[in-house]
Amino acid sequence: MKRIIPFLLLALGLISPSFAQDAKEIVKKADERAKGETSIATITVQTVRPTWTREMSIKSWTKGNDLMLILVTAPAKEKGVVFLKKKKEVWNWIPSIERTIKMPPSMMSQSWMGTDFTNDDLVKEASVLEDYDHSILGDTLIEERSCYKIQLLPKPAAAVVWGKVIMCIDKKDFLMLHVTYFDEDGALVNQMHCSDVKMLGGRLLPAKMEMVPVDKKGNKTILIYKSILFDTPIAETFFSTQNMTKVK
């Protein structure tokens, strides 16, 4: 009987000695798999609207969770635009006006370069590991892969865009395959689906990410990873406001 009672309490959700930690560990493994210690990636961004489609090319550099730089390489109109993240601070270099802008938290929920991704989605000012509490909701099947369904709720003091995030992470390879984003009132806002799983930079990863806003019919944004290189040494000085005007 002594063994049965804790099991019943766990099943009812009244105690959870390890589930929260397990959920965070799963998200951490998925996050580390997609980033490595460093990464250098070339990505095509397709913005799809009911009457038009626009394509953009970007190159990104990351180092850990605190440093990221994104350079727009095409089309000509946006070429040279740079975004820099250093811990919780984000800057934007706009070559057409030769100006570097420090982005306030209020801008993180706005559209990134006219796409369906927010500024926060791309530069990840909010940390999926440190700014949220994690819990396993259950299991699901995505892309014919058995996945953990994990809920992320923002910590009380965290300055985040989303009121709730639900991630579906592959149990075998820790691939993030589907993410749903909710606002502070619990309403569904965006869904991101990841597919075309293949070897990228020596790792099995989804090469395609499709973000769909639920209330805008015919709208979506697709990220297609063309190449990615992991764990190449990158000096921290590369991620500086001075380098934003020089990076190619």
Describe the 3D structure.
The chain is mainly β and 248 residues long. It contains three helices and 13 strands, in the order ααββββββαβββββββ. Mean pLDDT is 89; it is low at 1-18.
Q: Sheet with the most strands? A: 13 strands, antiparallel
Coarse shape: globular
> Hey, roughly how much beta strand do the residues contain?
over 45%
Q: What is the count of helical runs? A: 3
Proportion of helical residues? 10-25%
Instruction: Encode the helix/strand succession as letters.
Output: HHEEEEEEHEEEEEEE
Distance between the termini: 67 Å
Supply the CATH class: Mainly Beta
What CATH architecture label applies? Clam
CATH topology description: outer membrane lipoprotein receptor (LolB), chain A
Mean pLDDT: 89
User: Can you identify the CATH superfamily?
Assistant: Lipoprotein localisation LolA/LolB/LppX
A few lines on this structure:
With 248 residues, the protein is mainly β. The chain has one domain: Lipoprotein localisation LolA/LolB/LppX (outer membrane lipoprotein receptor (LolB), chain A).
What attributes characterize this protein structure?
mainly beta; outer membrane lipoprotein receptor (LolB), chain A; 13 strands; about 250 residues; 13-stranded antiparallel sheet; single chain
